[in-house]
């Protein structure tokens, strides 16, 4: 069974809506904008944006179970479309967007640098002039071996996350190994990720034509520190 299908039922208990993510995104939005959430998961951010603002939103995710959750949560929102779609197929979308974002470490699921470049080229193609792109990944500059365990006391669950690095076809890959433990269940999971470093992303964004590339260490706009930040947030303009 697919990694996210297994976890979709618990996803919002592990990664609930985070106001700082929303504040960052809303600061980039104008009335009537078209906004694209790429790898939207259960739709937390695109749903909230569409609920509270006069905008048009599209959320897409590869995993049907994650999109099914998002559809239930976003019911009745006429300005929202939710699609089961691979992020490498965004060039098939008919609309052009003012803001596209790919957050929550969705981007490293493309497990080759060439695929990440192909994706960023396609994002450039579907953005309007002066459109913006937000990317957020784990900070792989400092080669994390594990991520902080997430504990939800109310639901009595914990999510343990480890990284195992290896070389596959000359590319450095990481196996993201997880254990989700509840009162009466234990779910293990493993998914391959490409641990892309900040300099590689900047290089790709520049090659593709993005300008005004800003780096942050969190959605609170803290300075990015390659040694200490746990997260990398990039804002780039077309
Ligand atoms: C960790 S979740 C992040 C979800 C959401 N962005 C958030 O911040 O809560 C990563 C998501 O990326 C999706 N994903 C992985 N590969 C994808 C692809 N090639 N195209 C679209 N979505 C993908 C997964 O199905 C999963 O829902």
UniProtKB/TrEMBL annotation:
<dbReference type="Pfam" id="PF13649">
    <property type="entry name" value="Methyltransf_25"/>
</dbReference>
<feature type="domain" description="Methyltransferase">
    <location>
        <begin position="35"/>
        <end position="131"/>
    </location>
</feature>
<dbReference type="InterPro" id="IPR041698">
    <property type="entry name" value="Methyltransf_25"/>
</dbReference>
<dbReference type="InterPro" id="IPR029063">
    <property type="entry name" value="SAM-dependent_MTases_sf"/>
</dbReference>
<dbReference type="GO" id="GO:0032259">
    <property type="term" value="P:methylation"/>
</dbReference>
<protein>
    <submittedName>
        <fullName>Methyltransferase domain-containing protein</fullName>
    </submittedName>
</protein>
<keyword id="KW-0489">Methyltransferase</keyword>
<keyword id="KW-0808">Transferase</keyword>
<dbReference type="GO" id="GO:0008168">
    <property type="term" value="F:methyltransferase activity"/>
</dbReference>
